[in-house]
Amino acid sequence: MGCKSLGRKLFLAPRVFERAGYKDEDQFLGPLLIGILFNTYLYGIVTYQYASYYRANFNDRLTVKCVVAFLFVLDTVHSAAVMYMAWVYMVANYENPTALQFGVWPYPFTPISTASSALVTHLFLGDQIYRLTQRKVLYTIIITMTPPTFGLGMASGIEAWIIHVNADMPRINSLVIAWLSMQVSVDVFLTVTLSIILRRAKTGMPSMDTVLRRLIRGAIQTGLFASIFSLGDLFSFLLLPNANFYGMFAIPIGRIYSNTLLDTLLVREKLKMEMSSSAFERTSRVMGWIPSMKVAPGVAATNLHIEVHRNLQDSTDILSSYDDERKNIPVNPV
Q1: Distance CA 183, CA 190 (A)
Q2: 3-state per-residue secondary structure call for 292-324
Q3: Model's pTM, two decimal places?
Q4: Alpha-carbon distance 77 to 119, whole Å?
Q5: Which residues pair with 102 in a beta bridge?
Q6: Residues 176-187: tens digit of each pLDDT
Q7: What secondary structure does DSSP assign to 52-111, as a single string?
């Protein structure tokens, strides 16, 4: 490339960034690169979790296996796509700043991927909350909030794909804000609900209390991580719309949702070592991980959701209700 041509492109660069809504290339490419690097790191973690899940051979229901396989494909496709986007902006068009005027397809694909991961994870955690508490109201709230959130995320991605020009992206600001606000609301609701369940979860059986606390604590820790990134995505979009910092949070958040779901499933590896095989199987059936059988649930399985449900309704009556059950039901050792 000749000096004259290169000089002309360098002269046009500031105008290109200004037209796209950025002061310079650092505000556009810097946060983008950080988000891609962190996403790659998280993809390595969830890939290890996927391998651990299939190696553990939990004999889960086909639905659970399909959910895990779907998230693996989605994570792989999106992670490869954002690395391709980095190549397009930073290598293929290194001397062509005008390329920053246009959005590469992995960028609008990000909200589509994130919305899909969030949908699966939110419904899964909602099902776990229902199985632990037997409260239909909580489950109804979750399944009522989740589909509109997914729809708004899909609409944001599709609209951004159609617009294509970065300078025109503010046209979908209201749609993106609505989507991120709904996503934050669902994440916070799930985290708070699980925290309340953890605080009140007592069955009167030390072994079952350990199971409950470990299951819920893992979901809270990873769910809180997703909530923090959702809040970061929302606030950076509202407060710094022209700095592209929201991309730094938006790109890796799908891997965080996958980590949340996989962590909830993989916690059984430790439980399996600490519980008897029969107690572990009963717990897995109650939580819906493995196919249920048309037989009466054992005491451990009964306590896992019935006693928690009763405790959430009236924590002062939990000890008396447990004593009544012990009089009528023989207790099997766990």
Answers
A1: 11
A2: CCCCCCCHHHHHHHHHHHHHHHCHHHHHHHHHH
A3: 0.73
A4: 17
A5: 165
A6: 889 988 988 888
A7: HHHHH-----HHHHHHHHHHHHHHHHHHHHHHHHHHIIIIITTT-GGGGGB--THHHHHH
